[in-house]
Specification:
The chain has 394 residues and is an alpha/beta fold. Helix content is 35%, strand content 17%. Strands 3-2-1-4-5-6-7 form a 7-stranded parallel beta sheet, sandwiched between helices. A 6-stranded parallel beta sheet has the order 10-9-8-11-12-13, sandwiched between helices. Helix 9 packs across helix 10 and helix 11 (306-312) runs parallel beside helix 12.
Length: 394
């Protein structure tokens, strides 16, 4: 396992790179487990609020053991959640550096140039998305001997498997397609990143995950994320009698047909009495509007990752989901509360013609490996085309 930060006389220089709210949440969970914190009372601001929320977004204790670098995306929902998560990180005493990494043609050059010195000095690099081209570029600069990958959802499962098999790093929903021109151009950087993420006598690699990891590469340390920080800081929640539903971005990523997804949501909500739909941050406004009109569900746009929203409450006694990260994380975050997580498989007929050949198997694996969840009968029986009169799901 990686050396614990903050040991006598040698505070580790740790840089964490995040591009999503969930990644930042899991950096906080990792830091909590490894004992990285400042001298302030846990959970209390270590610097004045006006400094923590300064326009530059970088104010924090000068001796903070962890610096979180936010490679900010363009999506407004993601940016909003990241802002909230950044405030929580500052409240824990960590330094947060907000980078407008996608703010224009020259933004990547300014970002990478500005981070080069810190990357070369860092002893440990923590990253939320090893598939990210941005992160892969940054890995070519660092000399860190300690690399940590924290969860970026179900993609972590695929990353570990690809690393174990020595394959090139490709997101699961794109695998099987022909590499494009940009993929070929970036191939040397991706190959370099994969080599750096392979343990050696001079380099330690840790994977911090709540996902089931079955293929563990030789030399990689896998540490379990049980959401101890989340449970210590939030809740327990007030439990309502009804059901809530969790949205997915499988339509937006081109895996699932939009019409079939809408019908599946309607069938699932009707069968289980769901009244609220917690939207994924990547779901389109048009799709959510249609869901609200045609299903009657109340659409909720969370301002924090769902694990924190559910832990704060109120939350339904049953949470309905399709295969996604939350079927693994919510049972951990809500342990001991009595909330039941129920997951419905993706019917093969919902997949688009452009979906990766591996999509169905991967999604089934996400569901099949989830612990402490209730599996529902296939909603595909509710609708498989015009004129179908099949029954609703059990």
């Amino acid at each position: 396992m990686s050396p614990r930060a903050g040991q006598a006389g040698h505070p580790a220089r740790t840089l964490a790179f995040v591009e999503s709210p969930v990644q930042l949440l899991n950096v906080l969970e990792w830091a909590h487990l490894h004992g990285l914190r400042d001298t302030a009372e846990p959970g209390r601001p270590s610097v004045p609020a006006q400094a923590r929320r300064s326009p530059a977004g970088t104010a924090a204790p000068a001796d903070a053991e962890l610096t979180v670098v936010v490679l900010s995306p363009k999506d407004p929902m993601t940016r909003g959640q990241l802002r909230r998560m950044a405030d929580l990180a500052r409240d824990e005493g960590y330094r947060v550096r907000w980078e407008e990494a996608r703010g224009g043609t020259t933004a990547p050059f300014h970002t990478i140039g500005g981070l080069a010195g810190a990357l070369r000095r860092a002893e440990r690099i923590v990253m939320g998305d090893p598939f990210s081209r941005y992160v892969q570029l940054l890995l070519t600069i660092t000399r860190a001997s300690d690399l940590v990958v924290v969860d970026d959802g179900t993609a972590t499962m695929e990353f570990v498997a690809q690393l174990a098999r020595g394959e090139r790093l490709v997101r699961w929903h794109r695998k099987g397609g022909r590499p494009g021109a940009r993929d070929l151009l970036f191939a040397p950087v991706s190959s370099s990143a994969r080599r750096r993420l392979t343990p050696s006598a001079r380099r330690r690699v840790e994977v911090f995950s709540s996902m089931p990891v079955t293929e563990i590469p030789e030399g990689v340390t896998v540490t379990a994320n049980d959401f101890a920080w989340t449970r210590a800081r939030f809740g327990p929640p007030r439990i309502t009698k009804g059901s809530d539903m969790v949205g997915t971005s499988l339509v937006e990523t081109g895996v699932v047909d939009g019409d079939r997804y809408l019908e599946a949501v309607r069938s699932l909500a009707t069968a289980h009495g769901a009244t609220r739909y917690f939207a994924h941050r990547r779901e389109s406004t048009e799709k959510l509007h249609r869901l609200a009109v045609e299903t009657g569900l109340e659409i909720v746009r969370p301002d924090l990752p769902l694990e924190l929203i559910a832990r704060r409450g109120p939350i339904g006694r049953t949470i309905l989901s399709f295969p996604s990260t939350v079927v693994h994380t919510l049972p951990l975050a809500l342990a001991g509360t009595g909330v039941r997580v129920a997951v419905c498989d993706i019917d093969p007929t919902w997949l688009t013609e452009n979906a990766s050949p591996r999509a169905q198997g991967f999604l089934s694996g996400v569901t099949g490996t989830a612990r402490d969840v209730h599996r529902l009968a296939a909603v595909g029986l509710a609708w498989s085309g015009p004129g179908h009169t099949g029954s609703s799901p059990a």
